[in-house]
Amino acid sequence: MSDWKQLFEDAPTRTLEQGAILFRREDRVRSMYLVRSGMVALERPLADGTALTLSVATSGMALAEASLSAKTYHCDAIACLNSKIAFMPRATFRSALRDRPDDALGLIETYAREIQSQRARIEILRLRRVADRLDAWLDLNGEPPSGGWIRVADQIGVSPPALYRELARRRR
């Protein structure tokens, strides 16, 4: 299977400083994006002034892929870290997918894995106890690399102190 990211090989890049906005909710969709480096969150502002994080894209991930068939963005894209983003016009991206079916299938496979991952995360978040959430996450992913526990806390929906207390309990 071909790597769909090759579609962005000659695409221009845009550099975003941490906190910069790539696009806002209701902006017209004109481009497709690939995160080259850094991290970008897709957030939906809520009525109470907070934001709901819908997705976080890191290096090598597509950003706002649902916009492939939308007229406007349904959220804001905000750089969590300094980031480099490759972009191309949506029409160009769609045309490339039609012309390169192996890349289109590669993209479908990537999205299928993302859906599986999100479904697993939803099920983990439904568990009540930190210990149960951690067990489920470890069963699916194995132990994280050094320094990765902070991301595990976020992925299982608990505070880092709560996760560290559970890890300390297990070491005893």
Automatic annotation (TrEMBL):
<dbReference type="Pfam" id="PF00027">
    <property type="entry name" value="cNMP_binding"/>
</dbReference>
<dbReference type="InterPro" id="IPR014710">
    <property type="entry name" value="RmlC-like_jellyroll"/>
</dbReference>
<dbReference type="InterPro" id="IPR018490">
    <property type="entry name" value="cNMP-bd_dom_sf"/>
</dbReference>
<protein>
    <submittedName>
        <fullName>Cyclic nucleotide-binding domain protein</fullName>
    </submittedName>
</protein>
<feature type="domain" description="Cyclic nucleotide-binding">
    <location>
        <begin position="1"/>
        <end position="114"/>
    </location>
</feature>
<dbReference type="InterPro" id="IPR000595">
    <property type="entry name" value="cNMP-bd_dom"/>
</dbReference>
